[in-house]
Amino acid sequence: MIDFIQRLNVCFTDEEKEACLPVVVRMTELSQLARREGLLALETAVQEEKSVFLKTAVGLLIDGTDPKKTEEWLQLLVLADNRSGSPLLSRLLMAKGVLDIQAGENPRIIEAYLTAMLGEKYVDQREKAWEKEIEERKTVENFLNKVQSQATGSEFAAYVLGLADGAIQTIIREVPEMTLAKSLKLGCDYMTFRRIFDNLSKNRQLQFISAFESLGETSMADVENSRTEILEIIKNLEKEGLIWCQHLTRK
I need a surface site. Which of 47, 122, 147, 182 has the fewest CB within 10 A? Predict the structure, then answer.
């Protein structure tokens, strides 16, 4: 595939490369899905895709087409409509991504390779993003390890564990950061803590950690007040029919 790209002898502007960044993200997602659930999972994943090229490429992959034939077929499709600019680059990225998925490459390697096709600027951006991601993961991991060592039981769990993940996500959108942090500060079992924490977005997890660690000494009265506030939110959302909770206890 690289020889084919070199033979095309084309250059792309920064604007055209920027327009193709979502393609790199999408191909990385598909490679992760294939690694996690197998190639057949890709069939459902691309059903709503607008790109006929990507659907065709994934179809060849799922059908078990010989890798060499897949590469030849994709090269023909790249050339077929005489495209240029970002439409051409996006097809090249898709083709390379699919061929690498077929070869069983690690999703990280696929992401790095496709990013390299865009140039040094984007490689540097990706490396910085990886470094940030690693640091954030360490922050979350260290925080959860510390919480687990201090966790205890709680009646609050009866309400939280009776909720589906979607309901928890609906509730915590309504809860201020400090209220949520206080509610989990003392007397909270680890399972309940993780159910709530795991339903926060990645960015909000980091915000929550900051709020939680800034609390310092917190009285049980403050914790109970925060939990009462959250339970009122749960009851109001139930009344509005936005969530359903299988309560184990209710006073």
Answer: 47
